[in-house]
C-alpha cells in the first residue's frame, strides 16, 4: 500500500467520536462577503446553536464561512472541524477550526468528510463540490446512508443540475424513479435547521 494512503487511513481511524455532525461543501473560490458565504456562516452558527458540530474541507470560501459561523457560536464541545487536503498549490487551513486533520489523499479526505456526518449542505461550487455531492448521492442511492438529508442551497445555482438529473438521467433511465428526490434544493435556512432538529 502507498505510504501516504496508509498514513491517511491511520489519521482517519483516529478521528475522535463526533456526534451530530453536518458537513458543508462548496467552493473555496468565493469571497467572504459573497452571498453564499454569508448564508453558510449564518447556517453553521444555527447548527451549533442546535447542538450540531460543523465539518468542512478546512479551506477558504464556503469552508471558511462555515467554520467561522460554527466557531463564533457558543458550545461546550468541539463545534468547528476541518479536514484539509495537501495540494500542490497549497490549500491553507482557515483560522476558525478547533480540530483539524490534513490529508494527502483526496479519496480518504472525502471519506472523512462524508462518513462522520448525519446531514450535508452543498453550496455552489465547482468540480470538487460536484464530486462530493455525487459521492453522497450514490451512498444514499445504495442505502449506505439511506436517510441522510442532502440540501442543495441556492435554487438559482442548482436549477440546471436538477434539470439535468430529471431531463437526462431520469429520462434516459440511468437512475431510478425517486432518485431525483434524494436531495432538496432550497433557499430556506430555517427549513434546513428544522429538518436537522428532527434527526
From TrEMBL:
SUPFAM superfamilies, per database record: MCP/YpsA-like (SSF102405)
Pfam families registered for this protein in UniProt: Lysine_decarbox
Cross-referenced InterPro entries: LOG, LOG_fam, LOG_family_nucleotidases
Top EC group: hydrolase
EC number: 3.2.2.n1
UniProt keyword annotations, A-Z: Cytokinin biosynthesis, Hydrolase
This protein's record includes keyword Hydrolase: yes
Catalytic activity: AMP + H2O = D-ribose 5-phosphate + adenine
PANTHER family reported for this sequence: CYTOKININ RIBOSIDE 5'-MONOPHOSPHATE PHOSPHORIBOHYDROLASE
Recorded family membership: Belongs to the LOG family.
Record's protein name: Cytokinin riboside 5'-monophosphate phosphoribohydrolase
Organism phylogeny: Bacteria, Pseudomonadati, Campylobacterota, Epsilonproteobacteria, Campylobacterales
Amino acid at each position: 500500500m502507498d505510504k501516504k494512503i496508509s498514513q491517511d487511513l491511520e489519521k482517519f481511524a483516529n478521528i475522535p467520536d463526533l456526534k451530530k455532525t453536518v458537513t458543508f461543501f462548496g467552493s473555496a473560490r468565493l469571497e467572504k462577503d459573497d452571498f453564499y458565504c454569508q448564508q453558510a456562516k449564518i447556517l453553521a452558527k444555527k447548527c451549533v446553536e442546535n447542538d450540531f458540530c460543523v465539518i468542512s474541507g478546512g479551506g477558504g470560501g464556503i469552508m471558511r464561512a462555515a467554520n467561522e459561523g460554527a466557531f463564533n457560536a457558543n458550545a461546550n464541545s468541539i463545534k468547528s472541524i476541518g479536514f484539509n487536503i495537501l495540494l500542490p498549490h497549497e490549500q491553507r487551513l482557515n483560522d476558525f477550526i478547533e480540530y483539524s486533520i490534513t490529508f494527502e489523499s483526496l479519496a480518504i479526505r472525502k471519506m472523512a468528510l462524508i462518513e462522520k456526518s448525519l446531514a450535508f449542505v452543498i453550496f455552489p461550487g465547482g468540480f470538487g463540490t460536484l464530486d462530493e455531492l455525487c459521492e453522497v448521492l450514490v451512498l444514499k442511492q445504495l442505502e449506505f446512508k439511506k436517510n441522510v438529508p442532502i440540501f442543495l442551497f441556492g435554487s438559482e445555482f442548482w436549477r440546471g443540475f436538477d434539470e439535468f438529473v430529471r431531463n437526462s438521467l431520469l429520462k434516459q433511465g440511468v437512475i431510478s424513479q425517486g432518485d431525483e428526490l434524494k436531495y432538496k434544493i432550497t433557499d430556506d435556512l430555517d427549513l434546513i435547521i428544522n429538518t436537522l432538529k428532527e434527526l
